[in-house]
Amino acid sequence: MRRFSTMRGVLGLAGTCVAIALFASPQARAAEAKSEEIVEETEKPRDLGPPLVDDLKSLKKLDPVQPVWIDAKQKQVVMVGETCRASYPLEFFTTTPGREYEAVTVVRVKPSIVHAGLLAVGAKPGSTVKFRPKYTPPTGTEIVIEVRWKDKQGKLKQAPAQQWVRNIKTKKPLDVNWVFAGSGLHKDEDTGREYYLGDSGDFISVLNLPTSVLDVPIPGSSDIESRTFEGFVDNMPPENTPVTIVLKPKVGEKAKKEGGK
Questions:
Q1: Does this model's pTM top 0.70?
Q2: Parent domain of 162
Q3: 146-188: per-residue pLDDT in tens?
Q4: Residue 84 counted as domain residue
Q5: H or E, element range at 30
Q6: What does the mean pLDDT of the chain come to?
Q7: Is residue 153 part of a domain?
Q8: Among 56, 93, 132, 244, whose CB has the most other CB atoms within 10 angstroms?
């Protein structure tokens, strides 16, 4: 995998341009990212309501249209999306429109914007999975993910994201947090334009992909026959339920405390 030293600011936040240092990845994913970038939809998506957080005033939008916010005080990134059917062996916990059939949740948010938001709250990207010369798991700041939704009676519910994913063989929930692997950039040699590979939908994975923004630091295969996880539908609300997804990087004192230091 060839390293690109180019760094690009992808989001203006409080007058500061947040930069991303990334790595290139396979040509097939590069072409996919180029062709599947999120674009404005001809039909307005349905209103999913405000994010389910304690203090809406603490949130600042990261994009004027997309449902994604940053909470600088709590050091977290918040998105609003929908639950998927999750009846297929999973590739993602969260993806973007068009790949819902292999995910637990879907959001109409560019992963590159979330990358910038995570940087702004102190998370640091590590590296995506490597398979040669030997398997090396993805690295980066550990990210705790929480899901919040309302049941049929309108009562607020919340759970660790792992409770919506279970091992196909053991039927036990996922038992690790995600890491901020950071996806990668690909430069089109003809146009000179750079593409953020995670914007193809390789957002929050439950198996190892060299283009994921967030990934699990345990071995996993993208082959359908070898996939490890499925949706834990018994723990999930029905398909198309609005869901708030909260990304909480373990940084600073929080990381030290939870790490037992």
A1: yes
A2: 7-37+57-258
A3: 999 999 999 999 999 999 999 999 999 999 999 999 999 988 8
A4: yes
A5: helix 27-35
A6: 83
A7: yes
A8: 93
